[in-house]
Specification:
The chain is mostly beta strands. It has helices at 30-36, 95-98; strands at residues 2-14, 17-19, 25-29, 43-48, 54-62, 69-72, 84-94, 104-106. It has one domain (2-106): Barwin-like endoglucanases (Beta Barrel). Helix content is 9%, strand content 47%. An eight-stranded mixed beta sheet has the order 2-6-3-5-4-7-1-8. β4 and β5 form a beta hairpin. The chain is globular, with a radius of gyration of 14 Å.
C-alpha cells in the first residue's frame, strides 16, 4: 500500500509578484527550492494564510538569491503581493517507508524570503 506524505514545505514566504498573463505556475527563488528539496515542474500546493485560498500548480525556477515568489496565470488571482503563503509538496511512499520518512521543512524570513 502507498500513501501520500509531506515531502517538502516552505513555511511562510511573502508573495513578491503576481503575473496574470503568464501561462501558469509559481516561480520560486532557486535557493528556496534547493533548501526545500523542490525541483522545477514539481506539483505543489500554495496555501494563502491571508485569505485562506488553496491552489495546486507546478514550480518554475526563479532567480537565485532573489527571494522571488511569483504566482503566475490564474493563480495570480488567488493572492496579492505581500500575502504570506505556505508552499508544500507530497510524495507517494510505501506505508512502511513512510513511517520513517522525514520531510524537508524550511522557515525563511517572511520580510525578505531569505533563508535564516
Amino acid at each position: 500500500m502507498f500513501i501520500e506524505v509531506l515531502k517538502s514545505k516552505i513555511h511562510q514566504v511573502s508573495v513578491t509578484d503576481a503575473n496574470l498573463t503568464y501561462i501558469g505556475s509559481v516561480t520560486i527563488d532557486e535557493d528556496l527550492m534547493d533548501a526545500a528539496n523542490l525541483i522545477e515542474n514539481e506539483k505543489v500546493q500554495v496555501l494563502n494564510t491571508n485569505n485562506g485560498e488553496r491552489l495546486e500548480t507546478y514550480v518554475i525556477k526563479g532567480k537565485r538569491g532573489s527571494g522571488e515568489i511569483c504566482l503566475n496565470g490564474p493563480a495570480a488571482r488567488k493572492a496579492a503581493i505581500g500575502d504570506v503563503v505556505i508552499i508544500i509538496s507530497y510524495a507517494s511512499l510505501d506505508f512502511e517507508e513512510a513511517k520513517h520518512f522525514k520531510p524537508t521543512v524550511i522557515f525563511p524570513d517572511t520580510k525578505t524570503n531569505k533563508l535564516i
